Here is the input.
Amino acid sequence: MKDDALVGYAYFSKGETYYLLNDASNFYSQMSASIAPLENAKEWSYVAMANNMLGIVSLNRGNAPFALDYFIKAISICQDYTLPDIEWIIHLNLGSLYLNIEEFNKAISHIEIAYAYINEHRNMEGFLENLTAVLLGLGRAYLKLDSRVNYLEIEKKLKTECIPYLQDMDKIVIYCFFARVHNAIGEEETRDYWVDMVNIHTSGNMPIMDVFDDFYDYLDMLLSTGKYDDFFKAYMVLDDLTKYTLIKNLERKLLTLKIRYYRRVGQIEEYKIASVLFFELSEFMERENRLMVSDMIVMRNSYIELTQINKKVEEENTFLQKRSETDPLTGMYNRLKLNEYSDESFERAKKNNTSIAVEILDIDFFKQFNDNYGHQAGDDCIRFIANTLISMAAEENLFVSRYGGDEFVIIYEGLTSRESMEKASELRRRIYNANVEHKFSLTDNRVTISQGICWGIPNSSDTFFAYLQGADKMLYEVKQQSRNNIKICNAEELN
Here is the structure.
């Protein structure tokens, strides 16, 4: 057992060195060889990390199926042997994988698991850098999904929680994201401000593996909007950095942008030369993928039975799906499930010409509660509201979810405006009658809630987001006039 540990660690260390040197051939042979002795020695943290690194390299080299297999194996080990400090990293990497294959909702579900972990461990080493990576991952997904309310919230978090504390070099990818956000909402002047900020701070010293995906999306935006001078300036920097890594998949991916650029500006000879280079890189990657297949077969032979792994993958996928839809603090549905359910409910309402109401509520003077009673009591207060909502949802067949912080969302289907108001009033009474102490409230000496509702029969162009905005407007008006109250509007009034 001791010899296995030493042998496994020796292979792992050499593999890790080749990983840092971007030497794919030697990395795969050494890291694959480390797994069997590390398993025999029951060094599960190293086995998980080895699988994680094999997944990262497979993804960087363009083989997402292999990467997924490695990541799922790593998560399975973390679950079996309680390794949460490694598991969250793998979820973040899985999020990157799903972003790369354009499975954006799946990406969000994994990145949110990582987000929950680092928020609960704010004293961890590298917290700020990890928070930035997580927020940018979520932001990329929300931009791809055109989820405006969510990517604007990510922008706000990056501005308040990250930007003030980062070095200039670490802000570049955030500037890239900001430029894409303001391009998406049509604010060209603000977009160009952030493009200028990227131009000022871009340098050949950027950590390429940390910035590639964010910079690639930024370059794609510049190309799509015809900002060719800015595109080519940034492209040349990223191109030099990418060639230095020797990772042919990244070179090939970046080359697709140059080919599109040459085609757009009519540089036919350059377009032909770049196309030939793309073909050559593709041939190189085919040879590299054969190497990956060979090493993966060797590694698979160290597993007890492939059928057991497949069963574990299925179980893990079921677990991850359930976990990804659930808020870790309250156990109720989270924003990911809300996005999914709201789309379905609005489609039903449009198809059947039935009514729908969206409510958003928050806890009155929750900041004062949290500041004076402490964060643990604040969490207990949020759980109290959540449990009340869950109980009422079970009785009334409603959909309820946590929206973020002390905010919650309810969807009422098939009810009249009056019936929706009655349900909301019943919720308010339950919260009030529970008489949970809040001596620091300016409304009452107990916990209360304020509620905003938007009701209507949606037409073909209506969206959940529009109803949510209407409900949020009503909530704002309630809080301006009074607390512990409800206000409702008809969706037609918003048009």
